[in-house]
Fold:
Amino acid sequence: MARLDTPAARILLGLAVPVLILLWWQVQSAQGGARALAFVPLQDVGTTLVAQLAGGFLLNDALATLSRAVTGLLLGGVAGTTLGVAMAMSRPLDRVVGPLYHAVRQVPLLGWLPLIGLWVGNGDEAKLLIVSLAAFYPTVLNSYEGVRTVERRYVEVADLFGFSAAQQFAHVLLPAALPLILTGVTQALAFAWIATIGTEMLFGAHAGLGATMGVAQAQQRMDIILVVILAAATLGFTLNHLFARLRRHLLRWQPAIN
Structure:
């Protein structure tokens, strides 16, 4: 019996469902009528993909979306991690800021769109603010929980060695909280990527995958929509894969889980 844990077997298993979906899609596109519009033939999608790549349109859109997502992730992630750690280490700050944070994060991002539109308009500042908020919420929560759940005995050992507050944070609290902090960043990366494409669709942009998808929807260009979805999925998967490798490297001292 063939082994299913080899690299080749894992790749084949991972490709099985996408291949079946593509076959089903092609069958639907051959039915004609309205289905031909909803299920555009795969050869037309391939032709559009080549044209978008050759003209540089897809690359330009991908770079614009990637730039917004990474910038928002950095701004929201750094702010969220800083606030989460500060709240966990300062009980007065937690009591003052914590209730407001937990109340505000219950409001969906879409609920803030009218206010953000009034405050900063519909330009890049509004998109960046929404993406930053998408990255801010999970990093605050996970950073807070990461520091708060550090075992007390680690801190007691640091006290025995006479560590200062800065040394305790750098050598005890931060390493122990790092797994949850990085989990928050992983979630923030996914939320920031989704928020970037969503805001480009809602607010429009000179360039971006979401903006192109919105225009293609208005023009009923299903081939372009599928090309953009493919590009967004590929970029999103690549970003998550790269960060997962970085996370494993930073947490290489942890025992591996099979």
Remarks:
- The chain has a mean pLDDT of 86.
